């Protein structure tokens, strides 16, 4: 059977269309939230018909899952909390928060899929791998500076820290005034450092 010379071109067009849809979905999710978003709105933002969208995704949940997977892959490239020690806590945490804020601003749909605690049941499984990866990184960082803490204490602390980040991140990202945004990040940083320092004192 002769090889289809046009197949690679069609595949490239398909990948480009998927990326177009995901970029549109990120914008729509970021503006109106996941629940209020519709496939019609995503298609309109992408400049295509709903029928064209359905050639690649059966429904909004499939779009959301694909976007969550794309975010998870990009998050994996971020260096967060590596080499943390009690002595460099301020610097490493400041760098990690700056990277997360930058990522959230660059990817407007991120907060709609990740920076919340009431994720719709249909999306929990989709975002779980990225959540788990971030939580594992936070646990590793805590264990590095609190080697005497048991697993339950470390897990609880990771949950508290991530909840602090999730709680403030939407406000930080939505803040248009750069100095005010930086102040919010500073207060988040201060809260995490105070919490970790207090916990280290309890374990010591």
TrEMBL record:
Q: Which domain of life is it from?
A: Bacteria
Species: Microbacterium natoriense
Full protein name:
AcrR family transcriptional regulator
Write out the GO MF terms: DNA-binding transcription factor activity; transcription cis-regulatory region binding
Give start and end of each HTH tetR-type domain: 15-75
UniProt DNA-binding region: 38-57
Look up keyword Transcription and say if it applies: yes
Q: Does the keyword Protease apply?
A: no
InterPro entries in the record, alphabetically?
Answer: DNA-bd_HTH_TetR-type_CS, Homeodomain-like_sf, HTH-type_TetR-like_transc_reg, HTH_TetR, TetR_C_15
Its taxonomic placement starts with: Bacteria, Bacillati, Actinomycetota, Actinomycetes, Micrococcales
Record keywords: DNA-binding, Transcription, Transcription regulation
């Amino acid at each position: 059977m002769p090889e289809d010379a046009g197949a690679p071109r069609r595949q490239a067009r398909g990948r480009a269309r998927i990326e177009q849809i995901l970029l549109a979905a990120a914008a729509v999710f970021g503006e109106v939230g996941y629940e209020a978003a519709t496939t019609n709105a995503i298609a309109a933002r992408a400049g295509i018909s709903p029928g064209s969208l359905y050639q690649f995704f059966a429904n909004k949940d499939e779009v959301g899952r694909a976007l969550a997977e794309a975010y998870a892959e990009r998050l994996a490239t971020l260096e967060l909390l590596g080499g943390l020690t009690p002595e460099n806590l301020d610097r490493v945490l400041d760098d990690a928060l700056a990277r997360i804020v930058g990522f959230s601003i660059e990817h407007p749909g991120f907060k709609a899929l990740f920076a919340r605690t009431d994720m719709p049941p249909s999306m929990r499984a989709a975002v779980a791998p990225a959540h788990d990866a971030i939580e594992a990184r936070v646990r590793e960082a805590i264990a590095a500076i609190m080697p005497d803490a048991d697993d339950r204490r470390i897990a609880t602390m990771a949950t508290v820290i991530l909840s602090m980040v999730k709680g403030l991140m939407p406000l930080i990202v939505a803040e248009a005034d750069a100095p005010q945004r930086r102040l919010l990040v500073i207060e988040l940083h201060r809260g995490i450092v105070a919490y970790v320092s207090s916990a280290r004192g309890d374990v010591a």
